[in-house]
């Protein structure tokens, strides 16, 4: 297994995140040695969505207003329909996401989380996958949508759904181990 014990990763989420899409990467990143913080606009706990009802709560390590992208080596964005839709309407969340991209740091986004990438104006000209229902959103933002388990374009790692988590987690950890992508065009 790749060792990323010298890396810090932020998972940006809010209420309504897809349960497995936060918990599985969180565990995989920690198992690979990373320090991982759940960052949310609100403190305390946030609650996931699991199947067709509310899921478990997850503790928030830091509020969004208390951190900056410079504190972390990478960013992970879980999906679900509610979580990324709420976050893309939050200017501070969008700015946080964009700051990782501008700093050429790895970003992972799964399911509906590419909505945040669209709002941060990151997908234009990039190969991306997502939950199929937001394919047109990705394409309308200039993204090159692929129906693949995992797509990586210059440290932008995307996947479609919870079934893709093993491939997503492995590729995200690989990209975090590689670090900043200095050759990435703006």
Structure explained in plain terms:
The protein is of the alpha/beta class and 186 residues long. Helix content is 31%, strand content 26%.
Characterize this entry briefly:
The chain is of the alpha/beta class and 186 residues long.
The amount of helix comes to: 25-40%
Distance between the termini: 31 Å
Rg for CA atoms: 14 Å
What's the number of extended β-strand segments?
12
Main pleated sheet: 7 strands, mixed
Q: Give average pLDDT, whole number.
A: 96
Approximate strand percentage: 25-35%
SS class: alpha/beta
Oligomer: single chain
- Give the spatial strand order of the biggest sheet: 6-3-1-7-8-12-11
User: Low-confidence runs (pLDDT<50, min 5 residues)?
Assistant: none
- State the order of secondary-structure elements, H for helix, E for strand: EEHEEEEEHHEHEHEEEH
- Globular, elongated, flat, extended or rod-shaped: what is the shape? globular
**Helix count?**
6
Helices and strands in order:
Layout: E1 8-12, E2 17-18, H1 19-31, E3 35-40, E4 45-50, E5 53-59, E6 62-63, E7 74-77, H2 82-88, H3 91-102, E8 107-110, H4 114-119, E9 127-128, H5 135-140, E10 144-145, E11 150-153, E12 156-159, H6 165-178
Parallel strand pairs: 1-3, 1-7, 2-4, 3-6, 7-8, 8-12, 9-10
Antiparallel strand pairs: 4-5, 11-12
Helix pairs in contact: 1-6
């Amino acid at each position: 297994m790749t060792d990323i014990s010298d890396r810090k990763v932020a998972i940006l989420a809010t209420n309504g995140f897809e349960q497995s899409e936060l918990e599985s990467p969180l565990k995989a990143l920690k198992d690979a040695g990373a320090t991982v913080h759940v960052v949310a606009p609100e403190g305390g706990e946030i609650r996931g969505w699991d199947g067709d009802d509310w899921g478990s709560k997850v503790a928030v390590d830091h509020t969004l207003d208390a951190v900056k992208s410079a504190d972390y080596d990478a960013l992970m964005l879980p999906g679900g329909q509610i979580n990324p839709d709420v976050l893309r309407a939050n200017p501070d969340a969008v700015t946080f996401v964009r700051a990782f991209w501008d700093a050429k740091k790895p970003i992972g986004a799964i399911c509906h989380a590419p909505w945040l990438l669209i709002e941060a104006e990151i997908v234009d000209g990039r190969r991306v996958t997502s939950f199929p229902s937001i394919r047109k959103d990705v394409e309308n933002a200039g993204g090159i949508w692929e129906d693949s388990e995992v797509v990586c374009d210059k440290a932008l790692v995307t996947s479609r759904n919870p079934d893709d988590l093993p491939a997503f987690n492995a590729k995200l950890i690989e990209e975090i181990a590689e670090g900043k992508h200095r050759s990435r065009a703006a």
